[in-house]
Amino acid sequence: MAGSASYHIDTPDNLESTPFDFSEENYKRVDMVLSKYPANYKQSGIIPLLDLAQRQHGGWLPLSAMNKVAEVCECAPARVYEVASFYTMFNRTQRGKYFIQLCGTTPCMICGSEDISKTIQKHLGIKNGETTSDGLFTLLEVECLGACANAPMIQLNDDYFECLTPKTTIEILELCKTGNLSEMGKWGSLPMNGQVSCEGPLGKTSLFNVLVDDVVANKVREGGFQGEVDPASVKIHMGY
Q: Which residues, at least 6 apart from 50, have a Cβ–Cβ distance to it below 8 Å?
């Protein structure tokens, strides 16, 4: 299976004879996944095992990996193919080390996703759906990724980079090249304008108190905020 096609297309690196087997460490994870289901419902593990195989194989699924999942789940290979070809989280052709999924749906488009797309394409010398010649980056425009409040954004492998500008987009790409990407926040995302999660420029305007061990704890200064707050300072103002 390759590209958007729902059927397999032989390529030199994706043949039925292409070797694939789970590593010893991942076989432990296979056992853990299958232990969650009754013995006669091993097919329930197809999705997590496909994800495991994809991660082991560098971010994509050759036909032999899908066949291995079918073998482990004791089901017909077609049952695995239909799952892998349905969900866009499974890549059936080779991707770059850094898989850039650019949201192009309405909120992101209004907030500048087309500029971000042009920036990526110009900086990397590739078009939508292409991979750089060094195998480092793949770019693909996708539908809504659910981070509309922090548009425009990209999903880079597993992580969300939000509130992008052309400048910060180039910074991310250059950090990828050196292998020094910034750590994610505790929400699993990183707004590139310095704000915390999806807090607005006024900082926190409600839910000022939280329960800590059944005791109300004041997390921000009394009286809230007056006027504009620099997004980069919101973390301090919110008491994190």
A: 61, 65, 66, 69, 80, 83, 84, 90
Identify the H or E element spanning 65. helix 63-73
Q: Three-state SS for 4?
A: coil
The H or E element containing residue 235 is helix 234-237
Q: Rounded to whole angstroms, how far apart are CA atoms 208 and 230?
A: 19
Residues 22, 67 contacting (CB under 8 angstroms): no
Q: How confident is the model at residue 184 (pLDDT cuts 50, 70, 90)?
A: confident
Supply the pTM of this predicted model. 0.77
Tokens 């850094």 belong to which residue?
98
- Report pLDDT for 208: 66
Please identify which residue in the block is written with the tokens 């290979």: 77
Instruction: Encode pLDDT of 48-79 as tens digits.
Output: 999 999 999 999 999 999 999 999 999 999 99
Enumerate the β-bridge partners of residue 139. 100
Distance CA 61, CA 11 (A): 13
